[in-house]
Amino acid sequence: MKEKLTIAKLKAEAYAFCITESKIKNKLLFGVTDGKAVGTHIEHKFQEYLKSKYKTTIGSSASGIDLPSADILTDIKVTSIKQPQSSCPFKDAKQKIFGLGYNLLVFVYDKVDDPKTKTASLDFVSCSFISKERTADYTTTFRLREMIADKANVEDIVAYLYDKNIPADEITLNQLAHQVLKTPPPQGYLTISNALQWRLQYQRVVSLAKTVQGISKVIDKVTKA
What we know:
The protein folds into 2 domains: 3-85 and 102-135 and 190-220, no CATH class; 138-182, no CATH class. The chain has helices at residues 7-21, 35-53, 94-98, 138-149, 154-163, 170-182, 203-206, and strands at residues 3-4, 54-55, 74-80, 85-88, 103-114, 119-130, 191-193, 198-201, 215-220. It is elongated and about 60 Å long. The longest helix has 19 residues, at 35-53. α5 packs across α6. It contains 7 helices and 9 strands. By secondary structure, it is an alpha/beta fold.
């Protein structure tokens, strides 16, 4: 009988997966320059690995989250070290301030093709588990927290959100401002760009050298290089 997947086991398996995958000479990925194709290949491989070993729910494209069970609630992201970023569905403007609403497991690879063997190697240089509380935009949350400390009022917050082109109407911005003052957002560590989909950038997490509660460095060859 398969054991139940936990966050702790997920991190441990991510570590083991990175070590194993970094040693593989992959013929399927040789010459592939499409980051999305590489990411999908790795995501599916990791999902299948978890499914073979643990009792857990694997998400569908409809659910939008790779590991949607309430106790895990984690989306898997795979990206190149050359530009560590990905997209995710836009639900509402609140996500930029209060986080995406789910955890992220971010694999960052450095891909090298070997023309002699016609194989590709993926060296996983970083792997981070980011708790949902840390998935908001860094600059937005930093400034809002500063404004709250400086005794900003609702109008100040609305003006800031409006100035930053937070994708919401006036009523929603007003509601957000009240929520920000009532429940100040934790400091986020992603860079989230406005678009039809959120564009998530992970460079701050990848290069993070200090310890931050809610961010676990599973693999870190970047800051320790």
